[in-house]
């Protein structure tokens, strides 16, 4: 009977294991589904809409094939359409029936001109306007998409394969060659299919257990059969004999062995030989069972609630993501480092503007003339600790970033601005954060913050008045009408300006106290302020302030000499003057300006100061 049960266990185990393996192989079906996008008309760009990528759930794998290097990038659909607004491209979307369709989109005349369309001049034919637009379109043809700051990420390689992607519907993928050659005409998008087999695991494991039981019953049956081989009736007693070792050849045949082999040991060895293969086979079967081969009996874990910030209704999308900002800032830092090494103002102009560019240009002039003049501090890019993008769908759009220098234990706060959809981001303001600075509460990078208008009344002081008010405080101290608006404690900038002015005045008076005078003043600089809103309805405001030193003679025959000041001598182009010299320093200053009704004062966050210009007074 034991043999019967063993055979039944073997049969049932074979059926269960076979059924489990079949579920994971021949009965499982395809693991992926692929959609092919075929384009008949040749255009330099192919824009695949997010609805096409999301027609099936799960991650997306995109593949494009053509000769040469291929390019692909992804970003917000609105941004990509803006970048393509002056070019001809193929747009891949879903129609009302959910089927893929392609459409060739022609360039917009407004986007080509870059201005609002005006009425044609008197006497100009309509076809002349169309011809001008076509010429402008031809001028933009061939623009390479590689390296644009607008993309969230980009890829470039032969036989382009991107996996995995998981883009939402509001994002699209741009595929191109070099912006001139036709884009790939055949692109495939592949999605994984959810083909779980929840009973494959239990069937395989259960079959393995039954097989082990069958082996156990089979061994018991053999053991029982061997015990029943002896005589059933008692016979005459037989003499005790010793076993003969028949394995010995030659002269030793017939010799009685003194070490008889144990029959139990032999039987045990056979059982072990029979059990081990079964266990090994079962272990191999178990390794093929992934998580989707088991039934999900327990409910999925519920994540614990965390504090979230919800964007205000109607707020526009943030200008960049954190990863995008890191890539942009790395590019800026690399380009500026090359410009610093080559003293190349034109190269610096590709990534700097405003007060930041003016300070670099002056530094290059001085370093070209003065051998030991210091190199400007490099632009910090990593690690990027804080990113506050402007929430704005149009242009220009800006970003405030804070990066740390792990070696010097310093931090830089910066403003980067993109003037239009085809331009690179440029750094317009940069300053070093105070050591004890605590930034106000900021919105997360995935929400961003709206910009504050320069004349906004919803702050303690409008952004376009901050520079002039602070300059007045520098000039007049406690006698300034704006003194009570600014936090005195922790303001190292005013302290350093006062100490530097006192030192220079003492040096001047050592030799020229009776023949000349040195005067100091501060005023708002030429660069427009920039402000982004904080969580508590305040704003981070970046402003430009100019400090002006004026040295003039007080005696008719006296002259002002600057032989001991090579910077002023180089910029002014003279070593002495009977009329005097005027030296300008440019300050880039960051403040936290609280909202109305707040008990806080305007607080200094960071600053930088560089010599800007020097000239001989007329």
TrEMBL record:
Transmembrane regions: 199-220, 272-294
Positions of the UniProt region annotated as Disordered: 116-141
Keywords attached to this entry: Membrane, Transmembrane, Transmembrane helix
Pfam family for this entry, one: DUF8094
InterPro entries assigned: DUF8094
Residue stretches making up the DUF8094 domain: 317-615
Protein name: DUF8094 domain-containing protein
Source taxonomy: Bacteria, Bacillati, Actinomycetota, Actinomycetes, Micrococcales
């Amino acid at each position: 009977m034991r043999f019967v049960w063993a055979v039944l266990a073997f049969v049932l185990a074979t059926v269960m294991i076979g059924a489990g393996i079949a579920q994971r192989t021949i009965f499982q079906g395809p693991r992926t589904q692929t959609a092919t996008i075929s384009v008949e008309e040749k255009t330099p760009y192919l824009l695949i809409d997010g609805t096409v990528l999301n027609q099936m759930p799960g991650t997306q794998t995109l593949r494009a094939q053509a000769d040469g290097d291929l390019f692909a990038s992804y970003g917000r659909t609105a941004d990509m359409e803006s970048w393509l607004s002056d070019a001809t491209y193929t747009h891949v979307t879903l129609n009302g029936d959910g089927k893929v369709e392609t459409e060739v989109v022609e360039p917009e005349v407004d986007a080509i001109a870059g201005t609002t369309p005006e009425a044609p001049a008197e006497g100009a034919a309509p076809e002349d306007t169309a011809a001008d637009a076509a010429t402008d379109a031809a001028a933009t043809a061939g623009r390479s998409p590689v390296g644009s700051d607008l993309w969230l990420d980009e890829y470039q390689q032969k036989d382009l394969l991107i996996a995995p992607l998981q883009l939402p519907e509001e994002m699209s993928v741009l595929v191109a060659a070099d912006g001139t050659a036709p884009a790939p005409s055949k692109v495939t998008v592949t999605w994984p299919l959810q083909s779980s087999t929840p009973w494959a695991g239990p069937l395989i494991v259960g079959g393995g257990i039954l097989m082990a039981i069958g082996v156990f019953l089979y061994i018991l049956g053999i053991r029982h059969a061997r015990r029943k081989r002896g005589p059933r009736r008692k016979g005459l007693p037989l003499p005790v004999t010793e076993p003969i070792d028949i394995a010995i050849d030659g002269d030793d045949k017939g010799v009685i062995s003194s070490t008889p082999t144990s029959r139990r040991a032999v039987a045990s060895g056979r059982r072990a030989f029979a059990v081990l293969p079964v266990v090994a086979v079962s272990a191999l079967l178990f390794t093929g069972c992934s998580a989707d081969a088991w039934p999900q009996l327990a409910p999925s874990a519920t994540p614990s609630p965390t504090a979230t910030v919800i964007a205000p209704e109607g707020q526009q999308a943030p200008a960049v993501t954190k990863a995008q900002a890191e890539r942009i800032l790395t590019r800026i830092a690399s380009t500026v480092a090359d410009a610093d090494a080559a003293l190349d103002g034109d190269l610096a102009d590709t990534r700097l503007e405003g007060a930041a560019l003016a300070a670099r240009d002056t530094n290059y002039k001085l370093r070209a003339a003065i051998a030991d003049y210091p190199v400007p501090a490099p632009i910090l890019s990593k690690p990027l600790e804080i990113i506050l993008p402007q929430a704005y769908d149009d242009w220009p759009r800006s970003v405030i970033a804070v990066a740390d220098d792990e070696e010097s234990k310093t931090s830089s706060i910066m403003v980067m601005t993109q003037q239009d959809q085809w331009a690179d981001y440029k750094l317009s303001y940069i300053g070093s954060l105070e050591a004890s600075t605590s930034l106000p509460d900021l919105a997360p990078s995935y929400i961003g913050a709206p910009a504050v208008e320069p004349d906004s009344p919803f702050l303690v002081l409008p952004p376009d008045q901050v520079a002039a008010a602070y300059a007045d405080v520098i000039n007049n101290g406690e006698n300034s009408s704006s003194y009570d608006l600014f936090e005195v404690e922790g303001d190292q900038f005013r302290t350093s300006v006062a100490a530097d002015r006192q030192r220079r005045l003492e040096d001047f008076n050592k030799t020229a106290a009776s023949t000349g005078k040195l005067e100091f003043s501060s005023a708002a600089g030429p660069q427009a302020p920039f402000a982004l809103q904080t969580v508590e309805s305040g704003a981070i405001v970046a402003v430009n302030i100019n400090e002006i030193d004026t040295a003039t003679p007080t005696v008719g025959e006296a002259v002002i000499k600057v032989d001991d000041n090579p910077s002023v001598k180089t910029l002014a182009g003279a070593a002495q003057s009977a009329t005097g010299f005027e030296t300008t320093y440019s300050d880039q200053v960051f403040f936290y300006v609280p909202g109305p009704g707040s008990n806080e004062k305007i607080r200094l966050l960071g600053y930088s100061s560089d010599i800007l210009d020097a000239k001989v007074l007329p």
